[in-house]
Every structure is written in C-alpha cells, then in structure tokens.
Design a protein that fits this description.
The complex is a heterotrimer of chains A (about 300), B (about 350) and C (about 350). Chain B is an alpha/beta fold and about 350 residues long. Chain B has 12 helices and 12 strands. Helix content of chain B is about 30%, strand content about 20%. With about 350 residues, chain C is of the alpha/beta class. The chains are: A mainly alpha (about 300), B alpha/beta (about 350), C alpha/beta (about 350).
Chain lengths: ~300, ~350, ~350
Amino acid sequence: MPSETATTTQAAYPSRLNAFVSGLWRIVRSIHLPLSDPFAMIGIIIYLVFFLVAVFANQIAPHDPTEILFTESYDLAADRLPGEDGFVLGTTSLGRDIFSQLVYGSQSALLIGLTAAAVVAVIGTIVGLISGYFGGVVDMMLMRLADIAFGIPFLPFVIVLAAFMEPSIWNVVFAMALILWRDTGRVVRSQVLSLRTRAYVEAARVSGSSNLKIVFRHIAPNILPLSFLYGSIAIGWAILTEASISFLGFGDPETISWGYMLQDAYASQALSTGAYYWFIPPGVCIVLVVVAGFFISRGYEEILFPKLKE
Amino acid sequence: MVGVTAPAIDGQDHRDEVVRAEGVAKHYQVGSNLIATLRGRSALVKAVDGVSFTLKRGESVGLLGESGCGKTTMGRLLLKLVPPTSGSILFEGRDTATIDGADLRAFRRSAQLIFQNPFEALNPRLTIRQSLAEPLENAGVPRAERLGLIEEALELVRSPSPAEILERYPHQMSGGQLQRIVMARALILQPTFVVADEPVSMLDVSVRAGILNVFRDVRERLGLTAIYISHDLALVRYVCERTIVMYLGRVVEDGPTEEVVHEPLHPYSKALVTAVPVPHPDQSHEALPIHGGAPDARNPPSGCRFRDRCPHAFERCAVEEPKPIQQGNRTVYCHLFDS
Amino acid sequence: MTAPLLSIRDLSVSYVVGNGMVHAVDGATFDVPAAGIVGLVGESGCGKSTIARALTRVVPKNARFAGGEIFFDGTDLLKLSEGEMNRLRWGDIAFIPQSAMNSLDPVYRIETQLGEVLRQRGGLSKAEAREKSEALFELVGIEPRRLRDFPHQFSGGMRQRVAIALALALDPKLIIADEPVTALDVIVQRQILDQLQALQQRLGISVILVTHDISVVAYVCDRIVVMYAGQVVESGDTRTVLTAPYHPYTMGLYNAFPDLQSSQGILTPIEGSPPDLSAPPSGCRFAPRCPFVEPECRATEMVLHEVEIVDGPAGHVSACRRNGDAEMLRAKASEVATWSA
C-alpha cells in the first residue's frame, strides 16, 4: 500500500473522494437490513420505540428518576400503587417514580447496548478481516488471543473489573470490548478465508488491485451482514450483563438502569410484599430489548443462511 | 519491465522469449497438523515437479493434462500468484521472484489470467462497468478515458450490445456473455502474456465455439503470447499450435499440436489421444492402451511417474527419471526414445 | 423394432418459480427400446435432467407433472401410487446420479450400504447379500476386497463404478444415468463408458444416458434424443441422426463440436441463447436462433414428424417444418457464414 499512497496526486483527489462516497453507499446498502422478515420487523419496531423513549426521556418522564417525592400534604410518596396520586406505575419505598425510572433506564440500556454492539462488531470485524486475509503469523497471534478470550468466564470477569474500577456502566462496555470480539472475530475470519479464495478476489489481484482495495471492495461488503448479526446479538448481551451486574450490586448507583431498578426492588423486599408494579416493568423491558435483538439477528441469519428457511 | 533484455546466460539469444520456466516445482504440505505429523501421515504433494519450457513471443501453447496433473498450478506459478518451491520463472528475461513494488504492478498489467468459471470470476455486487474499470483504476488510467477503453475491450471480444450491459450485474447475464466480459477485463490493459485456464469448460457447447473463436482472433490480432490450460485435446488443438502434455506434475511431451495429435510419442499422450471421444458414430475406436487411474499424487511411482500404467515399462523406468529427448520438433520425456 | 421398454408420450413437467411457471419439459415424446443405450442430449436447461428425474418421479418439491404419460413395460408410471412407484424405483428403474459421492453415506462402508439394499429390497440373506455384493463389484471391475472401504477412499472413476454396481444391485431393466462421466477425465471417462456398454450388452438391459456431449453419445449410444428448450427436436438411430441430421439445431450442435480426428475447420457457434422457458416463444422454439427460419416457423407449433430414409433404420423423427429440405439445409449448415448473424 505505500506505493498506492505515493501515487496519490492532488488531481486524483476529487475522484478518490467520489469513490469513497460511492464505496460508503455500497457498504450501507450491503448491510441488508432484514426488512422482509416479520419477526425482524417487530424487533426493529421495538428498538425504534425504545430509541424514541430514550431520546425524549426528559419530555416523557414526569419526574426526576432519583428525586424523592412528596404528596401535596408533604407526606413521603412511598409505596404508592400504580395510578395512585397520579403515579403511573407507582413509587418505590423511597418515594421515587417508577415510570420515570423506567423511561430513564432505557437511556442507559440503549447507550450500553449500542456502544457495546458497535465495539464488538468493529473490533471483531477488523480482527477477522486482518486475520483471515493476511494469514500467517498475524493470524496465528490474533487467534491465540481469541483463544485466551474464550477461556475467560465473562460475568466473573466483569465483576472483577467493576470491583477494580470506579462503578460505571462503561465497565460492561469495556469488558465486552476486551472479551466478546472473539466470537465475531472467529466467524468473520472463517468467512474471509472462504471469500479470499473466490475467483473474483483472485481476479482483482491479477488486475493489480492492492490488498487494501481487495479487502474493502471485494471482501468487506460480504462480511458486513455477519458483523451486524453479531452486533445485534451483542446488544442483548450487554443489556443482560449490565442488569446482572447492577442486580448483584456492582453497578453505578448514580445511574438509573433497569438492572439497578431490579436490585432496588429486591433490596426493598418488593418481591415479598408483592409490589409487582416495581419489578415486573423493568424485567419486561429487559426481555423486550433482548428479544428484539435476537429477532433482528434471526432475520440476519435467514439472509446469511437462506437454507434455514426450509 | 518492457525493454529489459535477457542476459545471454548460455550464449544464446533469448530476446524473443516471453516466458522461461526452469525446473519449476511447487510442493504442498497436506494434512500438516500436529497429529498427522506425529502419526507420520503428513505428506508432500508435488503438484508441479521440475517443469521446464520456454514460450516465444506470439506463441500459443496448450497445457494439457488430467485433473491433478499440475497444469492449473503451473498457470498460477507463471502469473506469480503462488511462489515456486524451487526453480525459476523468467518473464521477459527477469526472474519473477524479484519483481515487486511498482514493477509488480507493471507485471500485473502485462500478464493476465482468463478464469475458468465466468460465474465466479466477477464480483456479484459490482456492475459490469465497475468490474471492467477496476484494472484501469489500478493502472492509473484517468477517469475520462476509461469508458472508451471499456467499450473498445468489449468490442474486441465481440460482446453483443456493449452499451446495454455496462450497468448490469453478473447474475443478469448468461455464461457466454460473462466469459466475454472476463476476457475483456483480461485484455483491457493490453497485456503481452495471457493464461487461459479452461475458459470454456463451464459453458454450453453452442456458445463455446464463439469464445474459442474470439480467443483465436484476439490472440492473433494482438500478437499475444498465450497459455491455454485444458484437459481437452480437441480444444487445445483448435487454439494452440504447440502442446505441452503434463502427467503428475511433470512434462511428458512438448511439441507441435498436430504432431502430438496425429502421432503421439509418449505412451501417455497416446492414451489421451485414443480416449478423446469424437462426434462421429462411424469412427472406429481403438482400445485404450492403458489401464487403471492416476496414482496417488502424494506417493507417485519412482523413476518415470507413468510407469505403473505404461504398457511399455521396463526396469530402467523404475530407477531413472526420464530426461528430455529431442525427437524432431518435439521433446519427449521417455526412456523408449533414448537410443 | 419390438415393443419399447419405455415410452414417453407428450410429457410436460413445470417448475413453480415465484409467481410463474417454468415449463422445463414441454410435450416430450420418445421411446427407449428393450436392450439398448439411448443418449438424451442437449444443453443446460433443455430439460434432459428433468426428464431423467421425472422417470423415477423423484422431483423437487416445486415440480408439477403438467401432462403426458410414461409407459414402462405397459404401465403408466404417472398413474401409479407412491407405494407402487417405490417398488419400481431401484428394483426395475435404477438411477445413477452425476456425483455418485452424494448418494453414498460417508460414515458407512460400501459393504454395509450395498448389503442393506440387497437384504431389505432384494430379500437376500446376509450371506447371499455378501456373495451378490462381491459379484457386483467384480462385474464393474473393482476388487471385491474394496467392499470394506469407505466412499471417500475411492477415486472419481472408482466412485462412478461403485454407483453403477449399486444401480445394478436389484437387477433393473432400465438404468438412468445423469451425466455419469461429465466430471471425469477423458481416460477414466472412456473406461467407464466401455464398462457401461459391456454391462448393457451382457445383461441385456436398457440405459438412458443423459449428457451434453454428443461425442459421448456417438461413442456408446444406439439411439439419440436431441432436446432443445424443453422439447425433443430430433430422435432416431445415432448414426443416421449424426451423419444426416434433419433438424437445424442438431446440425448446429454438431458444428460447434471440436473434433480431434477430422481436419480442422472453423468451429461455428449458434448465435443467441435458448429462450426463457417461463414464457417460451410461439411456434418453433429454435426459430429465433435458426439460420433457416421462415415466417411460418414462428407461427406453427413444433410437431415431430417421421423422416423418410431410404433403407435406413426406422424411427427417425424431427420437429423441423423444413424436413423436406434437409439435404439442402445440411449443405448450407456446413458453411460458417450460414451461422454468423
């Protein structure tokens, strides 16, 4: 590639930019959102709803999720049932509005889910592409690293990490970036290995294309749906992991998340008092978002492996 | 690259040589995992094992043999798509092993490959125009000139209605059309040397002839040096004036195609010529002179590799590898001709 | 000619693709005599493989029998129940697929697979099955000890021999071989064809050889059936059809074939490509590519007519309207200029 850049002249620049834009468009098109699959459509709609809720949380939520609320008679508004005193889903034992917590919880859920998905997909894809295309020593080293990542139990690793660092929702993303690229990397690599031997890849080589060009033009577009499949699976994983961590008490007490809500409910004996309005909504939200992720990934699988349909 | 004159190593004039292969070998390790190695099962396949020949400028040579004889590997070696295990390949006087950087790009421009399977040789996500433009982009041809060159190349391969197909995708086209496009892409940078790897084996009979005719015409018109890899002697005879017959990684016979067809010298060539079916029902059929199939490439016979199937084999064949023997215009690798 | 073993009358098979139908076979008619090899020849998509599969009624889920009859030994196969058909399959009508490897289970020895067929379908005892397996292997020229081998231990040619042995297991009257030698090298191809011919003559069975290669037909087949775009365009005795073809497509196909033995002329391609079978053209389907086309050709449906050959074998039919001009067309067809559009 050094010779490639050396010959880049000023005059060639606009056409390069053009090529970049058209290349980008090709990549966007090649993501192949699984719009024809009804389940995937449901998944996408669920995401869209939660996304809108997260974006407009300030407008939707009637209260600050951490604010301790009082009634007009200055009584602590604790353990209110749904609908009572205008609290849609009631309040916690400390007098916080559950509905508002739920709304703000979607923010951290989506933040964690999407960043984790992006990180996992990007790292895994890059590792897989490099490892699969160049092979040799690079491949061996990257794959041994993946082996090590496979050997680390995920949840305990996140707990240890959270214990060492400041409690933060980013611990989960960080842990996923360190560990969960392994699946994406492996799968992308095996796909690249088979793509690399395609006649048209060899044809590009014979026609003088550089490695970089071959990877981006001829290989990456075929990989992207796979990356997205693993990305969409990672969304669910990240949210589940964050919930588990918070539930176990290693979460960030400053940030409202669905996992934190569950932990709060559990610690306040909501289960034994039958305050279902407190622990069921966050549980349902977690299930919805995770299931939506798997619906979308299922749609991708049908695009990637059409024979599954039969 | 062009204009490099070959050093006169042996005092002969090599200037009209485009390609010279000297003792070229390519060995592959198979089953080379740890367990296979421990069990002593790891084996060496000598896909190409000591092949030498030269191609003169403008010559078209058929590389003929059955599957596994190393003809495709040889084609890939000539194009520097895989490095040889030993031996050397000279392209216009220069060892291809030493070509890199800007020279490599010049080499890619002058040495091209026509693929076997046109359905796989084009990226399904790119339009025909994009596929044809790729070599031009790589060669630094300005954008404004590309369309003209693409149309010229499509005309050269007699592609019907070039203007209409440019924006199509490969899956919208027939095998015959696609193979013309694959040829157009190989020829678009005006190479001097082309390797065609069974370019019609995936095509229907009625369109085959058209592709072969284009290949013949283009080769003559551009004065190309060409290698035509095939298992079909009848096709090789149609497009090549010279034929190199390979068996298990070695050359067995090398000479003018008509002579090989009508009076094959090597017993293996004889068997090949006899086995080719002809479309006449009246043709009398000679019985096949040999029996059995090709032996395991991991464990070929000692000496002459053909000896276990050869009806004329004698003791010397088992102990000594046959040397090239000149018989008129032909070179044959067989002890029968060593007087 | 005595009563044929197999008579295909006006057979039509269509595939449901998306919202449309692809008429892969459209009114095919031909006979297979008792004892003899018939070559079913044509290019990809002409319907030859569909016919081969239709004869055993093992067709893809989206295939529909749209009409016609297949008489085998006097009974119409299309009217049989699935159970009756099952008894015929392999028993009387055996199939050799293009890739024999796919019909063999990689985890069992050949012995086991062959033995199972012989015991379950042939009703033989274990010892009898063993004896018969060995006899079958000897018949196709493989050492009986190789019965103990697994499928992957056989080379391409050997696998095809195993497939022939399997096909012969229940003493069928008819063997249908779908491109049995296409993937093989010329020398092995020749060996298999020799074997197939020798077996056919020795056992007095009938063979349908599906192939795209007319030189294979010329080498082993007694009769030839030429197909184009789902229809039979010409059929008859191999020698007369190939030396004196009546249909322009047969002439064109013959001209497009490189020939090792004759002095080399110019190969002539047939310009254009076969029609789209979801909406085939009216009239003769070869008309758009035919150099001898007349306006009436596009209006008249193709019908097979017996051609008159002076003291030649009977049963030579051609679907060309201009059968009467065949001699003149043949002369023109041998000129390259005729075929260049």
